[in-house]
């Protein structure tokens, strides 16, 4: 794994690669006490012709910077971030990888303050299929818990957005659902996102997804899929999407780094269970194929999304 | 410091006292990634006649249990919690202490799940004056950030409630304020609490404080002060308190373990700066004296709030 440290008031200098293992941290650190922690997730792909590529790592770097500003932390620069990611990816032949950058307030704080030291760390793990269901997702609309509120930190990839919705996820999984769909905290009338991915609804030629105004994570796959959908001739609208619209949609799908694009098979809202189009003819299938083809080098990347591992660092 | 570990599906057994120092934790742990962390704060007092006492430690233990349930963690039992606290308090003669229990998801998680291992840890530090201002607090009502929402985790002492409001606190401090007063996320019309303490307003014989319905931390000092205020003949109302009422109050004060009771000298709402009664004649002064007298053993504890260190564990 890659580890770099930085004191408050300074900036990150070059980190180093050390064997993966436990890290040593103050019991009084900003992360343990006040939740000063951000993470990222991105994938390294092996292309058809054997090259190793990263998908839009600069976007993850920028999102970490936005998050660091929101939680009063010091982030690495975009260049440092991308170089550090490259250093953690093993040479071709060792399989597909999920890359997990982490930025934590590692310095000890007593009263409420931003930590005096930050640790930027990256570790990697083999990619599994995040949602085990091989067919579409079966979602439950949550009527009790809310993920985020305006004026909160729901729009950054902060650790604080996850433990508060774990109970909702575990309850839904125990009932056989794949994941939970959260409604907005202000009105409870609009859909927001799942625990770990964004959502889109399709009706006719219009693809709609909730706007990223601070309560929804600005997914990099979400952004990429919006662009590809436009390329396919769909009209993509970023706007409030009501539960009523969700229930009347023809197709619903989710996006995230781990799953790429995944069709939603059913949504359960109170006692109502709605079934949506999935499979061969579905737009989600088309978008999933297009994006994975770009990531795997089957289709040419005309958008500059692919960063090739230059191998110089190995 | 005291450290105990517990695997998912088991319960905490006896921990041990080790020298204070960094702890070793997986980069992949539930706390670092998903913010699965709770903390508590309580004080050990030296009474006038030299005994060492704890103030309502069972209440902290119960609050940690509520929080653990909310974040899908395993908590220690009330008895374990209180015994562990006793073990961390040094013998008489070493001064007043702030005791910091911590419960973290220390086991490694890959996808979103509750951690497979939990660490319960307690460390202590000498008590300082949390808010440096020796006179009353100067608060700024925040119009941008919100601390918590209904359906979130604002009602438990989770690390996830702190880093998202750090920016607000630092901005207010840079403008010379002592702390920030947050409004409710749903309407922005009612007051909730500060970054680290609860709030009360006084008008005539009525003392009002926002209700603990999931967005406000159920402070142990808050609860104790409500009871003492009733003993003094005030009517204590737990209900929504609007900004208008705050601006028209005669007296405003805050409660927390570190500060006990502290008068609010001014509240700044947009361009309006309201001044409140503080000093000798203020209710907050009377309540502060009463509670510290109970804690210090000057006044007899008729409520069973004081737990004496029996010394057997030393």
From TrEMBL, chains A, B:
It is an enzyme of class 2 (transferase). The modification N6-(pyridoxal phosphate)lysine is found at residue 157. One of its GO terms (molecular function) is L-isoleucine-2-oxoglutarate transaminase activity. Its cofactor is pyridoxal 5'-phosphate. CDD domains: BCAT_beta_family (cd01557). The keyword Transferase applies. PROSITE patterns: AA_TRANSFER_CLASS_4 (PS00770). It comes from Arabis nemorensis. Belongs to the class-IV pyridoxal-phosphate-dependent aminotransferase family. This is Branched-chain-amino-acid aminotransferase.
């Amino acid at each position: 794994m890659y580890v770099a440290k930085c004191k408050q008031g300074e900036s990150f200098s070059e980190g180093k690669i050390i064997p993966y293992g436990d890290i040593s941290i103050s019991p009084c650190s900003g992360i343990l006490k006040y939740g000063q922690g951000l993470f990222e997730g991105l994938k390294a792909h092996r292309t058809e012709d054997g090259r190793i590529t990263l998908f839009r790592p600069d976007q993850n770097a920028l999102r970490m910077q936005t998050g660091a500003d929101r939680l009063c932390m010091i982030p690495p620069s975009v260049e440092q971030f991308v170089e550090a990611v490259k250093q953690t990816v093993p040479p071709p032949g060792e399989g597909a990888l999920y890359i997990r950058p982490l930025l934590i307030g590692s310095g000890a704080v007593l009263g409420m303050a931003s930590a005096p030291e930050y640790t930027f760390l990256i570790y990697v793990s083999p990619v599994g299929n995040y949602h085990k269901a091989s067919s579409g997702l079966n979602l439950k609309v949550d009527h009790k818990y809310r993920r985020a509120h305006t004026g909160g930190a729901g729009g950054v990839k902060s650790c604080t957005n996850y433990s508060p919705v774990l109970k909702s996820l575990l309850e839904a999984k125990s009932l056989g659902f794949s994941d939970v769909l959260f409604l907005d905290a202000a009105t409870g009338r609009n859909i927001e996102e799942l625990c770990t991915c964004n959502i889109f609804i399709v009706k006719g030629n219009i693809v709609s997804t909730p706007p990223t105004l601070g309560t929804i994570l600005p997914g990099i796959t979400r952004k990429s899929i919006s662009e590809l959908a436009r390329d396919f001739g769909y009209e993509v609208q970023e706007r409030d999407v009501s539960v009523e619209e969700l229930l009347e949609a023809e197709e619903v799908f989710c996006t995230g780094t781990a799953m790429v694009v995944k069709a939603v098979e059913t949504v359960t809202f109170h006692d109502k269970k709605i079934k949506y189009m999935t499979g061969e003819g579905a737009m989600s299938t088309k978008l999933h194929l297009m994006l994975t083809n770009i990531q795997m080098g089957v289709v040419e990347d005309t958008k500059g999304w692919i960063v090739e591992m230059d191998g110089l660092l190995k």
